[in-house]
Write a structure and sequence with these properties.
This protein is of the alpha/beta class and 406 residues long. The protein has helices at residues 5-12, 32-45, 69-80, 99-109, 122-126, 146-153, 159-169, 181-200, 209-221, 229-236, 240-252, 281-288, 294-308, 347-357, 383-388, and strands at 21-26, 53-57, 86-91, 112-119, 136-140, 256-259, 261-263, 275-278, 312-317, 322-329, 332-339, 362-366, 374-375, 378-382. It is globular and about 70 Å long. The model is unreliable at 391-406 (pLDDT under 50).
């Protein structure tokens, strides 16, 4: 088991704000329960009295009768045992109707730091975000980073070889490549089926898992390419209105992330022709029933890693051509090109990107080794080494507000 320091750090940053509910979301089977247990153990180890750290898992058999917010309030009262302050962590909160009213009652007292967690992003998408009564912050827990994955599975080969496994099977903790490809594929098919049936189709007024799968298939097949609602509608034969509903659900539930285009010349952010990236490449391959091509797979990994490191990421564009991933964090911006190669032959890109980006640093993430150290003023970095170097955890300070819009 790997200690997910990055995820725990984000949870730790939420402490000391008892009037603010911390909402933890993730794609299903992403290891959130383990992260919560690690967080609770860290709190106790840091000196917080054990009685003041209460972790309630609503999916445990003994809690099967907790069906309403009133039931939950009784259970919490029993578990608090008279303590007047501390940290209250509730896993599986999505099963409780009107749970935001329970959260309000806890936060109004202002004595307990409240963390609530539910899989599939269901509560993040439709719960407290629609409530005007509770102040909240959302914390998203992604699948394993490649650094975490290599910590677990580094005995299976060289870093480059293990990266190949990571690209093929993804970073879901439950998918262990040492079990063999057939077993991994069975688990991934089960995960995809659960997500499409319950988290995506189940949230629609007229649930249709086939429609959800068609939309997901189209987006997975277009990773790294410009996409808009009209093109998805045309490619799937589904009405644009229905496509939009399912895409919003897929993004809310963490299956995809969306990157808008950003014009480097004038700062405009067009609302169309952005790019979708998969939260987990293993699920992408499962839906497509084939391996993801190397270049879009590498770009997907780079995008997700930049997001994990705290960056806001858009698609840098010079008005005519998309130039790469523009990441904002740690008081600066960097424009990344991701190539399936060693970085050579990128002189034209470096010149064009340099002209459009002005003083923004340039970097080329290359999948192969042995290329040049730089091209023009762009540094060339090996993708595997860059993914393993997780020492950078930039805080976003200068990303334009419009970047955040879908």
């Amino acid at each position: 088991m790997v200690v997910r320091d990055g995820c725990i750090r984000r949870l730790r940053e939420g402490r000391g704000h008892p009037t603010l509910v911390k909402i933890i979301g993730s794609i299903g089977k992403c290891g959130t329960t383990t992260v919560l247990e690690q967080f609770a153990a860290e709190l106790v180890a840091s000196g917080v009295p054990e009685d003041d750290v209460v972790l309630i898992r609503l999916d445990e058999p003994e809690n099967s009768g907790i069906l309403t917010r009133e039931d939950l309030a009784v259970l919490v009262s029993e578990r608090l045992s008279g303590s007047e302050h501390g940290v209250l962590i509730i896993d599986g909160i999505q099963r409780i109707p009107e749970w935001d009213r329970f959260a309000l009652s806890v936060c109004t007292k202002g004595t307990w730091d409240l963390y609530v967690c539910g899989t599939g992003g269901h509560m993040v998408a439709s719960g407290i975000r629609s409530s005007v009564t509770v102040r909240s912050v959302e914390i998203w827990l992604p699948p394993l980073s490649f650094h975490e994955y290599y910590t677990l599975h580094g005995d299976l080969g060289t870093p480059d070889e293990v990266l190949g496994l990571y690209m093929r099977y993804g970073g879901m903790p439950v998918v262990d490549p040492s079990m063999g490809g057939r077993r991994c594929d069975i688990i991934l098919r089960g995960l995809v089926s659960s997500i499409m049936m319950a988290d995506i189709a189940g949230r629609q007024m007229t649930p249709n898992a086939t429609t959800a799968m068609k939309v997901a298939y189209h987006l997975f097949s277009e990773i790294g390419s410009p996409v808009n609602m009209m093109s998805v509608s045309k490619g799937t034969g589904i009405s644009q209105n229905t496509v939009e509903k399912y895409i919003v659900s897929l993004v809310d539930n963490g299956v995809f992330r969306y990157a808008r285009r950003y014009d480097l010349r004038d700062g405009r952010t067009p609302k169309t022709n952005g790019r979708f990236y998969a939260e987990d490449l293993g699920q992408c391959r499962t839906v497509l029933s084939r391996d993801v091509p190397a270049q879009p797979a590498a770009e997907n990994l780079a995008f997700m890693e930049l997001c994990r490191r705290g960056c806001d990421v858009v698609i840098g564009n010079d008005g005519e051509e998309d130039l790469g991933l523009l990441a904002a964090g740690d008081g600066a911006r960097t424009l990344y090109a991701v190539v399936d190669g060693d970085g050579s032959g990128m002189e034209a890109w470096a010149e064009r990107a340099g002209n459009a980006a002005g003083g923004i640093p340039l970097a080329i993430l290359a999948t192969r080794r042995g290329g040049p150290a730089s091209v023009g003023r762009a540094k060339v970095l090996n993708l595997t080494d860059w993914l393993l170097d997780d020492g950078c955890d930039p805080r976003v300070v200068d990303a334009p507000a419009e970047w955040h819009e879908l």
